[in-house]
Structure formats: structure tokens, C-alpha cells
Amino acid sequence: MPTVTSLKKTSLNDLHTRSGARFIAFAGYEMPLQYEKGIIQEHLHCRNHAGLFDISHMGQCLVKGEAAAGELEKLCPGNITRLNNGQQQYTVFTNADGGTIDDIVITKFESHLAITVNAACKEKDFQHLQKHLSDRVQFQILNEHALLALQGPKAANILFNLVPEACELSFMHAFYTEIEGIRCMISRSGYTGEDGFEISVPNKHVNQLAELILNESDVELIGLGARDTLRMEAGLCLYGHELNETITPVEAGLNWIIHGNNRRFPGAGTILYQLQNGSELLRTGLIVNARTPVRENALLVDEQGSPLGHVTSGGFSPSLGKPIAMALINSDAAIIGSTVYAQVRNSPVELTVCDLPFVPRRYFRG
Amino acid sequence: MNELPDNLKYAKTHEWAKLEDDNLVRVGITDFAQSELGDLVFIELPKIGRQLKTGEQCSVVESVKTASDLYSPVSGEVVFVNENLNDSPEQVNDDAYTSWLFCIKADNPSELDALMDADDYQKMIDG
After folding, report:
1. Residue A323: is its pLDDT beyond 80?
2. Average pLDDT, stretch A193-206?
3. Which residues of A touch B44 (CB under 8 A)?
4. pLDDT value for B2
5. Cα-flanking dihedrals φ and ψ of residue B105, to 5°?
6. Where are the domains of chain A?
7. Does B65 contact A40 at a Cβ distance shorter than 8 Å?
8. In CATH, what is the architecture of A1-278?
9. Smallest Cα–Cα separation from A218: which of A163, A171, A153?
10. Which CATH superfamily is domain A280-354 in?
């Protein structure tokens, strides 16, 4: 275990401390798990009003040059060459077996593509990119950039007061602009299932920008604890849980990110075969028919006790007021409404297979 | 952080215990413990009638993020559980010292002497 002193800090660390954060180690960073109100209140505040998240631990990089989109399309199942300027795409870097190296967001601009990657994967991803990109493109890691997420039904009202043009963006679109003279990239995207924005900004300006946003009404800082419960309710994958080097995007239920005209990416044989014929395992949602949470790695069995798979994320849904989980199970058993069982402390717990998301997504699609 | 009540004894594993009439020992978790765990969403209480040994794992508190075992501070029989917590585990977050979890009819109440008093427990959590 790394000691607290060896953890990296984001530029907003002092703000978190002043705001009463309880910190955890996450991907080598000291990050706020929660603030004084706690995960449930923070979660509900984001669902009902707006939340500001420091996600500066995530990796950001640029790929420049005319060949950039074509070269990225050889690393992921997306159709990057077909993106319009200002358009974003959620996709995955795949390995030769069809497993997932990371799930990422690529944003197309005229002069470059911007990529946002998971904090825990960023060194691996950047090495992957450096290894596979040719010298026809330039690769630049944005080490000096922070990332904020403003999420929730009031997010657009709040940002309207600072940068009204941002509210014209529709979901998964982005542009470069200035807020009070601070140059930033704003996208209409996020990880909560709510309408919202992510704002990439130089570290040296992120405190000023965070204060500007927090001075608006209806917005509070939200920690990583609620970020996790929000994304779980929204049925979104978390790398290392619903996705990893051995889980394909088809198994993770991400068929929609596979664009059949792209057959050049690593593991395309496996992934396109699964897309056509189905996969043995499939990510599914589960509602726990008891009060006890069923946590990650819990084994799931059918009524006869035959193994079906395991829980990939499990916890409590503050919006539903009951425990929920996501799991990778035999696709034959992933039938909405059917019952599966977990053992929790030697007692069987019943779970009902359900569709995802658990809570409707409320993206702004213009 | 609230001041620690002086009339309770404290275990290293963050349970509090209160000796009442008829060798009854009331057990809860400390304010420090609830604060560390965060929002509680489920508490698995021991079954009434269960015979516990000192230090035996007998209950589980689950927060949004994690599950944590509780251990019996004394040996004896479980005679009451706080069933209000089945519907409202958050009562323990709101007031850890009035929201008890279970009561044990202690075989030997002097076992409580092995637990910490408020000052020693405060020193332990101050680390």
C-alpha cells in the first residue's frame, strides 16, 4: 500500500481539504471520497440539483496530424474518421484477444483529436498510443491540465451564467472557449446519467474556475463515492469492474460502440464474431430483493446452484433506496425478470435480473 | 466529533458497551466508527437467543462503500435487538450512542473491565 505522502494530489486538493473532504487513495492520487454531507446526500444533490466533481486524476492527451483519426481507428472499434469537428465518441482500446485495455472518450477537432482516459489506465494507455501511433502524427500528454465535471439537472443553468454558448452543445459534443478569460475545452458529457459538462482547463486556472462554479447556487462538491453510485445507477461501466483486459465490449453490453465498417482494430475477429453470434457472458443489471448489499465478486448461481457468473459492481442505490448490482453472467441467464442467487455471509440472497440503466439517463440531445 | 460518553466502555473494534441492571449489556458502534463507515444502509443484527463468546463476530454494518464486522464485547446470550434499525440503519449515523444494536445478558459482566474507558478510546482513535 502506498503511504499517504506518496500519493499525487490534484490542483484542487486544498479546496477539497477546506471543504471537509474525506480522502481515499485512488489510482495513485489522494482524492475526495466524500465531503461532510456524505455519499447519499451528495448523490441526491447531483440527481436533483448539480454537483461539481474534480476528476483531474484522469488522463488527457492530444493526437495531432491528418492521419490521427485513421490511426486511432486501428486501435478501437469506433468510427473515428467519420466524426465531425466538435463531436465526441465513447469507445475502447482493445487488445488482440478482443479484451478491453481501457474505455475512453475521443473528441474530434479540426486540428487534433483529444482523448480522455481512466486515471488507473493512463500510463498503460499512453504507452499503448506511443507504441502504435506512427511518426505521421504528434502525440501530446496534457500533464498540466485539470478536469472538472459539472453534472445534474441544474448544470446547464449554472454554466449558462458563465458561458452561455456551452448550453447550445448537445450530448457528446465539445468546443473550446473561455470562461472569464480562462481557456478551456467544454464537452456535454459525463458519468452520472444526468445532463452535464466536463471542462478541461490548465491546472493553474482550475481553482479560479472551480470557485466561479461553486459561487453559483444549487451546486456542491461531490466526491468519488457518489460518482460511483451515480454511474452505477446510470448503468455505466467502470474499468476494472465491468471492463478489463479479458472482457470484450460485447460482453460488457457495449454493442452500440462497435461500428461494423471498422474491421481494423485489435481483436476485431473475436469482437465482430460476438457481435454477430452473441457472447457467452453478458453484463446485466440486478436488483437485490433484500436489504443487504451484494458486493463485487459475489458469485451468482441459478436455482439449482449452478454457477452463472459474478457481480462486477454492487452497492446501494440512493435514488432507489435499495441495493443494486451489475454482473457478468451467462447470457442465457441474462433474461429480464429472472431470479439469480448470491451467497452473502452464508445466506442465500435473491436478485432479479433487470435492464440497465437503473435510473433513466437524462442527456441533453438538443 | 461528539464528546465520548463517560458511562460506556469501548472495544478496540469500535463497539461501545453499557452495563445496565440484571447484567444486561447494551452494545452499539461508536460515533468514530459510524463516521469512518459513512452512510449506513444495512445492519445485520444477531439472532435473539444466540450464545456469544467474547470477541465473537456477531453483527455486520454495511455502508454505501463497505461492510464491517462487529464483535461481541462480552460473552452471554442475545436478548434484545434494535429492530428499528432494520428499516432505518441511518439512525446510527444520526446518533451512535442512543442507537444501540443489541443487548446481551452477560455471563460475567466483569469482562467489561478489559475494555477501554472513554479517555483511552479517545487516545486510540487520535492515534
Report:
1. yes
2. 98
3. 292, 345
4. 57
5. -80, 105
6. 1-278, 280-354
7. no
8. 2-Layer Sandwich (3.30)
9. A153
10. Aminomethyltransferase beta-barrel domains (2.40.30.110)
